[in-house]
Amino acid sequence: MATVTTERIVGIGAGAKELATEDMTLNIGPQHPSTHGVLRLRLTLDGERIASAEPIVGYMHRGAEKLFEVRDFRQIVVLANRHDWLSAFSNELGVVLAVERMLGMEVPERAVWARTLLAELNRVLNHLMFLGSYPLEVGAITPIFYAFREREQLQRVMEEISGGRMHYMFNRVGGLKEDLPAGWTTRARDAISVVRSRMSDIDDLIMGNEIFRARTRDVGVITREQILQYGVSGPIARSAGVDFDLRRDEPYLAYGDLDVRVVTRSEGDCLARFECLLDQVHASLDLADACLDRLAGLPPGPINQRLPKVLKVPEGHTYAWTENPLGINGYYLVSRGEKTPWRLKLRSASYNNIQVLSELLPGNLVADMIAILGSMFFVVGDIDK
Fold first, then answer.
1. Whole-prediction pTM value?
2. pLDDT tens digits for 47-106?
3. Crossing angle (nearest 10°) for helices 184-207 and 143-162
């Protein structure tokens, strides 16, 4: 008697394919785990490795450039200092430098040196934030307490002169809002000395940690060619051997009279980016001390220029760029002779720096993604504007 057999195939899952795997598309954000803000990353994964990455921006876009066009040249300063909220003083500088250039205005010497001093203190405040938060993102909790302790020393002197902790609004077209308070330079020098003496605590705590070094060495390597192709600037570019710093190479304010030490590395990995930031703090503290020495030797004098009640900028255009803490920040100002700019285009550091993620992330493990993101040292408001 013949035996009848029946073959039955059991379902193996909807869409599954035999002897093949499909790439997975993963959306990180717009509130991604590294909590930098509303940045979205669209990743294509091949197993645990990133095959492609697309940064998608715009979730915090506030239309700042259009708002510039309906504010006069005094009012735009308060808008300009907000896109990179960790570098407010430096953001203000670019605007007032552009307007002063269009006006052909010469700023008093005391204002030039005071601006340079405050720009370097703001740079240290910016870097200390990332020096504390980046280890936090790769699992080290303690460093952020040390970093914020040092930040408070400098925040105190910055708050004393301006009344603000983040948005200082101390720059004015023609100089600064008002003169430095009596005895302020002594208190600023003391704060700088305290921060410098304590930086070794942060250095020892982080750089001596073998786990931190293992998570960051040879991870997220960026090449010189990628930097030049995408217009990456600041500490990220210098960590890969791009020896360029506007303070030294195209001096503005008082930087032409200072010995600006440009910190560079050649590795281009997460560790090199962190080391650049750490060493830059020491370099900026030295520059701040040099500014205080020069201010002490200047005779009493004005800190700003008197302006007309209605400030109109002559017809024309100019581009003013500065070395902000996170990289090159530029303002392209076009005036038609009115009291408001016809066009004020912002070139922010973070916008260019983050675009290179599309080439930087592929080939890396998903587990290394946050370590790489954190080492790019960006502020989302500086991307979206």
1. 0.90
2. 889 999 999 888 888 889 999 999 999 999 999 988 888 999 999 999 999 999 999 999
3. 160
With b for 16 or more beta-carbon neighbours within 10 A and e for fewer, the 118-146 pattern comes to bbbbbbbbbbbbbbbbbbbbbebeebbeb
The predicted-structure confidence for 165-174, as pLDDT tens digits, reads as follows 889 999 999 9
Provide the CB-side half-sphere exposure for 67 (13 A, CA). Answer: 14
CA separation for the pair 79, 167 (Å, rounded): 10
Directed axis angle between helix 109-137 and helix 270-297, to 10°? 150
Output the DSSP codes for 63-84.
Answer: -HHHHHTTS-TTTHHHHHTTSS
Please answer whether residues 345 and 111 qualify as being in contact, where contact means their C-beta atoms are separated by less than 8 angstroms: no
For residue 106, give both structure tokens.
Answer: 């010469």
Q: Is 353 in contact with 84 (CB distance < 8 Å)?
A: no
Residue 17: exposure state from Cβ atoms within 10 A (0-12, 13-18, ≥19): exposed
Buried/exposed 197-213: b ≥16 CB within 10 Å, e otherwise:
eebeebbebbeebeebe
Residue 335: φ, ψ to 5°: -120, 145
Report, as ranges of residue numbers, the positions in the chain whose pLDDT lies below 70.
1-21, 31-37
Bridge-partner residues for 49, per DSSP?
46, 365
Helix (H, G, I), strand (E, B) or coil at 285: helix
Question: For the chain, how long is the longest CA-to-CA vector?
Answer: 118
> In the chain, pLDDT over 70 holds for what percent of residues?
93
CB neighbours (10 Å) of residue 307? 15
List the one residue out of 289, 226, 274 whose CA is nearest residue 371: 274
Whether the Cβ atoms of residue 33 and residue 56 lie closer than 8 Å to each other? no
Q: Are 273 and 131 in contact (CB under 8 A)?
A: no
C-alpha distances out from residue 124 to 29, 34, 133, Å? 29, 22, 14
pLDDT score recorded for residue 292: 97
**Residue 46, CB half-sphere, CA atoms under 13 Å: how many?**
9
Return the CA Rg of the chain: 25
- Looking at residue 13, its pLDDT comes to 45
